[in-house]
Amino acid sequence: MPEDDSAAEGAAGTSAPDRSGATATADAPATADAPAARPARRRRAPRPDPLLVEARTTAREAVAGIADDDQVGEGHGVRVEEDRLVTHLFECTLPGYRGWNWYATLARAPRSRTVTVCELGLLPGRDALLAPEWVPWSERVSPEEKARAAQEDDTGDEPDDATAEPPAGPAADPAAETAAASATDEPDAGAPSAPQGPAGADEHPPAGEPS
């Protein structure tokens, strides 16, 4: 019995702190159990790939596929994009493209020495000639031009006197039109008609009689 009592007391003593701890946790604010936010990891700079950096000839040959030899100038260096991904830049000598550069982006797979051309094209440099930024018509037009355009729209809806159709007259009478048409087809009643001989004069005389 003493052993059972001590065991019961030990069990009761052990369970008491748990109950108090559970009560304290329930009363604590919900944000107390949330883990602290970890600071954002700083992204390391990409490392230049020696194999891709040295593949300048491969990049120039790729650019020669879309431009003539006299349109590709000297190289402007290499730009590291990502690990195993670099871009070679070459001067563009096309007329009107001052400050622009031909570019060829190269890449390779991990543990592979095969250089792959990913992309080709033209990129503007710092002193490149660029088209001005597009401005909507509503912002670049002056108030006078807006008023003139609105006036032209208002006057454009009205019909022009020179091209306007004449007003429709009274409805024509079909019977009158028919009578007028028949009068033009018949001869004039006052004009003398051709003389006509006795009845049967136009017939041939009987045989033996003078005509």
TrEMBL record:
Biased composition (Low complexity): 22-38, 164-200
Pfam families membership: DUF3027 (PF11228)
Location of region: Disordered: 1-52, 139-211
InterPro entries: DUF3027 (IPR021391)
Biased composition (Acidic residues): 152-163
Biased composition (Basic and acidic residues): 141-151, 201-211
Designated name of the protein: DUF3027 domain-containing protein
Source species of the chain: Kocuria flava
